[in-house]
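Support reply, case 0932

Customer input (verbatim):
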Amino acid sequence: MQHHDGVHLRMMRSSRGMSLAALAASAGLSKSEISKLENGVRPFRPDHVIRLAKIFGVGPTEMLSPASPLRSMLSENKADAEVPVYEGRDLSRDGVEAKAAGTMPRPPQMRGVQGAYAVTVHDLSNAPAIGIGTTLLVNPNAPPNVGDLVINRLNFAPVAFYLRQDDEGVIYGMTLSRRRVELSMDDLDRLHRVAGVWFPH
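Our regenerated output:
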């Protein structure tokens, strides 16, 4: 039998005498999700690794099987292997002075991206329709295009919105509540493109 990350997870859970239900409750995942991870039906994502490592009190790479494709990403130099995670409400309140609430493993699509970071959204007043607890992966070097979800580095209120263009060619932001955010051409240089979204379970 192939020793994938799920087999390793099952061994760790069993060695600690934890039931599927107990682990699922601790991780904030469904029992079905844990079962799918253990059986290799669903591949591990970096956020799974972080949640489970905290529960078992181990480092992220200790949650992975020896042949895991995530191992090389998590075992790199820490500065290169992680990105800072900011809370959306902290950015709304403190702007550029906000401190990172933690870090997360750098996803493959963010490798080599200087200044990459993530934003976790906890309230819908400052976010588009993405759901509470969603983490946005941000590439500050990619120019935003119409249709992109962006982080509002102008004033962080709202934290994120979609770029839209009206019939006259004017580019503006649109929030979940359908509030229009007026933008100048210079403002576009201060918007950071969201390169990926991780949804909570």
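We compared this against your earlier run and they match. Two observations from our side: Helices lie at 5-15, 20-27, 31-38, 46-56, 69-74, 78-81, 88-94. The two ends are 29 Å apart (CA to CA). Please reopen the case if you see a mismatch on your end.
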